Amino acid sequence: MLNDIFQIDWVFVDTIIIILLFVLLVGVRIFKSTYRWRLSFSNEALECYSFPDAHKIARSQFFQTKRWTLVRDSSLKEKYSKSLLILILRTNHHKRLLRILTEGLASNGFNIITAKIKIKHYPDSKILEKDIINEIKFLIPSIINHFKEKELIKNQNYILLNHSKSVFPFNVILMDSKNKGMILINPKINNENLVNLHNVIDNNFSNNHFYTIFSRKSWFIFPNKNLKSLLKEFPSQILTGLKVITLDKAKNLFKYYETIVLGIIIDIIENEILKSKI
After folding, report:
1. Which segments of 147-187 are extended strands (E)?
2. pTM, to two decimals
3. Of 125, 149, 245, 264, which sits 20 to 30 A from 186 (CA to CA)?
4. Residues 188-206: pLDDT tens digits?
C-alpha cells in the first residue's frame, strides 16, 4: 500500500521534461535572434546628436515625425565634413537593419541623419494628396536645416535611404536640387507606389540614381509579394532602368544579410552616385 502511494508515473515526468526542454530551446533561439546585435554601436568613435523634439519644428496634420538623430565617426572629420548626407526615413518598427546600416555607413565617413515619420494617406482626395506632397517637400529641408543651423553639417546635398511601408512621392523628392539619389529597401508595392514608380519612369527620374533593393523571399519559403507585384507591373527593360537589385536567398528582414546590403549601398554611393558627380 505504501509503495503504491509513492509510485512515480515516469511517463508523465518524461513528458514534462521534454516539454520544458522544448520551451528552453525555443527561448534560446528567440534570445539569440533578438540579441545577436548590440543595442549600442560597437564603433566607439561614433558620435550621436539627437533631437527628440522634432515634432515641434515639423508640425503637420498629414504626418507625424519623431526623434531626429545625426550619427558620424569622430575619427573621420575630414571625410564627413565634405561628404554627402545620407538621410534615412523609416516608418516601420524594425530597427535592427537600419541600426546596422547607420553604423556601417557612418564608419565609412558619411553623415547619417535618421528620422521616423508616419504619413496619413488620403487617396480619395487629390487636394489632400497635393497638400501631403507639399508637406513632404517641407519636411526634408526642415530636417537638414536643423542640423545645419546647429553647425553640425556643412554639405546639405543628400541621398535618401528609405526602409518604409508607407507611400512616398518619389518624383517630388528626386526633383529636389539637393537630392543626389534614392535607395529604397523592400518598398511596399501597392497602387499608390506603382503610380509613383510610373511617374519616376515617365519623367526619366530613374536616371537620377534611383535604386531598389529587394529580398527574394518574404518569410520562411514564401516569395516577396512586393517584388512579385513589381515584376508583374513592369517589363524587364524598364526594371533595368529602375535598377532593381535582388538578394535571392534573403528574407524580408535581411537577417544574416545585413552586411551584404551595407556593401551594396556603399558600392552604389561610391562607385555610381559620387563618381557621376565628379
Report:
1. 158-163, 179-185
2. 0.79
3. 125
4. 888 878 888 888 887 776 6
